[in-house]
Backbone:
């Protein structure tokens, strides 16, 4: 495929690379020479204001991909086929500039502009175009590309397009390894007194049984997860919170606990592991805390750590990703919301991050998630059955566009704590059904 444009830009090159990885067998080329474009005999996209011939696919551009600054954009949504679209171009062979619209969504352009924040200081989903226009629960970018590919097939039947396969990647955040064990004397006494003051006798009894070795810790879901992954032949990724100081939102057990180190080392040897940068690192003024946490987990896991996901999904663009990149992270799993399920970047495919501040593409790969158990439980207040329905809705949406379905679960919710009754069972049903469907 050849794309003609009157001028090159880093943004256009980035989007062409993205589209090539999604729907083309080979990377599309870009030319600014009209003669080369005219003589080309394959599929060709005219991304300029003037139509040359009926043999081309005419896509007149809006200005976004040829700008190098960040400023408010006029975004007016309308209906196209069964979905929303924006950046209207009525005279084109598509009714909108699909290249600019994709860039706007996957670059998270709106997060670089002034926006509302939630109680944790994060970009609020209420400020997002996807929420306001009602497509937060759709992988809109993948849907657009799928529909555009069908249109291009009619015009250029000789072209072979890529057919991607659906994939599923279960991931886990280990924010707190144990509920009662390995907390140290002071934290154990404090937790016990808290239960007594609240007259929470079941919790008090459970704590005593666990500490005396009579009962398994309610957050210890590790053997159960291992068996589930073995049965389902799945390849999970585990992210560990390894804050060196236990304070605020960082409440995992001490990194000095031998069992904690052993668990990290075991999963590093068995599956894939990443860093779950602490809240402290996300609000620090420099890279020092993040670098120390990464160095510690690398020493324990005995591998180089290149994956990360922010604790509480606490990140700001571009500062957080720039910091992660400086510390050696090349695969980032935070692209989603920490307060509602859905597609933050409107995409269900991994893709490289474009740093708008530098107006340049990077080799930091982003892996968007669309479902997190904590969102369903704490924020959306769903029952296990309702959460299962929501989980299956997102599973079906991603499978339909042959994307990558990434979920986040926590050992706390998948354990045996009574407040999470029914959640483990729901997850097991889902995992086994996914394994069954994939074998069809």
Residues:
């Amino acid at each position: 495929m050849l794309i003609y444009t009157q001028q090159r830009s880093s943004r256009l090159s980035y989007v062409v690379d993205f589209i090539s990885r999604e729907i083309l067998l080979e990377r599309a080329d870009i030319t600014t020479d009209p003669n080369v474009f005219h003589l080309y005999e394959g599929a060709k996209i005219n991304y300029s204001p003037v139509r040359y011939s009926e043999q081309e696919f005419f896509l007149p551009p809006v200005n976004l991909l040829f700008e190098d600054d960040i400023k408010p954009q006029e975004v007016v949504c309308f209906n196209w086929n069964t979905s929303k679209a924006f950046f209207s171009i009525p005279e084109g062979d598509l009714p909108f500039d699909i290249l600019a619209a994709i860039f706007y969504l996957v670059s998270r352009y709106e997060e670089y502009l002034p926006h509302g924040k939630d109680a944790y200081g994060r970009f609020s989903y209420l400020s997002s175009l996807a929420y306001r226009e009602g497509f937060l629960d759709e992988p809109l970018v993948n849907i657009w590309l799928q529909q555009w590919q069908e249109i291009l097939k009619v015009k250029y039947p000789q072209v072979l397009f890529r057919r991607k396969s659906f994939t599923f990647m279960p991931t886990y955040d280990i924010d707190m390894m144990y509920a009662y064990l390995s907390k140290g004397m002071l934290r154990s006494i404090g937790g016990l007194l808290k239960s007594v003051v609240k007259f929470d006798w079941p919790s008090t009894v459970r704590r005593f049984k666990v500490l005396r070795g009579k009962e398994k810790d309610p957050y210890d879901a590790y053997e159960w997860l291992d068996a589930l992954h073995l049965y389902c032949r799945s390849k999970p990724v585990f992210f560990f919170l390894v804050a060196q100081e236990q304070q605020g939102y960082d409440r995992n057990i001490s990194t000095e606990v031998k069992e904690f180190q052993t668990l990290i080392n075991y999963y590093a040897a068995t599956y894939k592991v990443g860093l779950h940068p602490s809240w402290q690192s996300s609000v620090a003024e420099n890279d020092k805390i993040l670098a120390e946490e990464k160095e510690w987990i690398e020493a324990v896991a005995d591998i180089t750590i290149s994956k990360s996901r922010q604790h509480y999904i606490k990140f700001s663009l571009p500062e957080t990703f720039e910091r992660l990149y400086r510390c050696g992270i090349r695969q980032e799993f935070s692209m989603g919301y920490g307060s509602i399920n859905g597609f933050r970047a409107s995409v269900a495919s991994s893709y490289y991050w474009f740093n708008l501040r530098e107006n340049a593409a990077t080799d930091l790969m982003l892996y968007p998630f669309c479902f997190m158990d904590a969102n369903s439980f704490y924020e959306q207040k769903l029952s296990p059955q309702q959460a299962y329905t929501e989980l299956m809705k997102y599973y079906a949406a991603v499978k339909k566009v042959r994307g990558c379905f990434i979920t986040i679960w926590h050992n706390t919710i998948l354990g045996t704590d009574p407040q999470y009754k029914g959640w483990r069972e729901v997850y097991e049903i889902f995992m086994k059904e996914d394994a069954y469907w994939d074998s069809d």
